Amino acid sequence: MATDMSYANATMDNGLSQMVNSHLKGVGRLFYIHSPKDTMFERQEDVPNFFRQSWPYFLIFMVLEHIVLRLKGHKGIRLNDGITSISHGIFQECGRLVWRGAESYLYTWIYTNFRIVELPWDHTLTWYAAAIGVDFCYYWMHRACHEIHILWAQHQVHHTSEDFNMGVGIRQSVMQGWCGFIFYLPLALAIPPAQFVMHHQFSYLYMFWIHTEAIKSLGPLEYILNTPSHHRVHHGSNKYCLDVNYGGVLIIWDRIFGTFKPEIEKMEIVYGLIYNQPSFNPLYLQTFYTGYVVDKFQRFTTVGDKLRAIFWGPSWEPGTPRLRAEDDKVEILSRDKYDVHLPFWCNLYLVAHYAVVFYGFFDLTDRYMGMTPISVLIFVFYIIASLTIIGMVFDNSKYAPILEALRCSALAFFTRSLSSTNPGLGTTLQFFYVISAMFWCLHTLKLLEIKKIKAE
């Protein structure tokens, strides 16, 4: 008996130790703290999806950041803006589920057929070469996304928030991977695909936590690393903040290529786009600028001007330089943030429905490889439609009530299928959606109304 108890205690201690070690590694990944020997993979398909595994840490860090900001006397993360940022991150992940890694196929093909050197996949030098190479290419990809209009149309999603917090770190375009992959292709001449895919993830994980106002300075590390201070400047709409600090993990590329600007103390940074879009609708924020590029393309008559409207800078007009001159940049010193103040019960309703969609998203990520492509597309459509309508409710859009009534009615019908496999969950969700649909039907008939409350 004593032996059995000792064995059970040892097993429990070992399991606890492994769990703690696993979480420490998970947190370390956000800061690019890795052991090369533990993160060497021969095949691309063996590389874990570290980004998806890090979602719990994203949410925990956002909560901690909110608490720290509140303790410092700031407002913290706004519910509507924070949820919109998370929705963009889910949009991007849904895109990855649909693409199934297709954007990296060309990289693998070039490496297989045209590599000029055979670097050993399990050597430490290859690991560090991949890390530096990915970061160098990220700098040029990021810079191009600000200097080429059609690429900016996708990347601008990341800059749409008027706040600067860790949620913005996952506010990404669903097309970002397709827009940026070409800038990494030179690495395929030497860097094994598995190393590229892995460090590409590590780079974006690092950039999550530098989106914060809770950390002012990292001291001497400011000279080498991209830090919250440097990245605050990059996200600013102030004149001195425009078109600078493109680095991912390292800031040395900006120092080398002349695009570095330090943060100016005691000058408030105004975040968001120069001409900001007042909306919490993630689908609109993902797509509106592409429509603007199309309109600009159609406005010109000559082939040259049409091409320049797409491939030159966002502010280009006939007779002006490819990129806007310093004197032509708009100076923004302050502005009111877009906000819609809904009643507490409405915010509670939106959080509850968002939690269900969030759960559905992670259920999809666990099962999508065993699903047919059409099933994945239907599930992705449900997630994107739900997040879009929730964003419209946050905007208090006049179209939101009828769309939410239709969404809840449809889901009340479809959740009937869960009753056979999971009766408790199926019945609960069905009741949840029926009650919600009834409420929005009454709202649509003007029998109930959402009244905005005044800002404090």
Structural notes for this entry:
This protein is mainly alpha-helical. The chain has helices spanning 2-29, 50-53, 55-71, 79-99, 105-114, 124-147, 149-155, 176-180, 193-209, 228-235, 252-257, 282-299, 303-311, 344-367, 373-394, 400-414, 418-421, 423-444. The protein folds into two domains: 26-257, no CATH class; 344-445, no CATH class. The protein starts with a helix and ends in a 12-residue tail after the last helix. The model has no long low-confidence stretch (mean pLDDT 91).
Which structural class matches the secondary elements?
mainly alpha
Distance between the termini: 65 Å
What radius of gyration results from the CA coordinates?
24 Å
Which sequence of SSEs, written as H and E, runs from N to C? HHHHHHHHHHHHHHHHHH
Portion of residues in beta strands equals under 5%
- DSSP helix fraction: 55-70%
Describe the main β-sheet briefly. none
Number of distinct helices: 18
Oligomeric composition of the shown chains: single chain
| Sequence stretches where pLDDT stays below 50 over 5 or more residues | none
Please tally the β strands and state the result: 0
Count of distinct structural domains: 2
The average pLDDT score comes to 91
Principal-axis shape: globular
Cofactor: Fe cation
Keywords: Endoplasmic reticulum, Iron, Lipid metabolism, Membrane, Monooxygenase, Oxidoreductase, Transmembrane, Transmembrane helix
Domain Alkylglycerol monooxygenase C-terminal: 346-424
Domain Fatty acid hydroxylase: 129-259
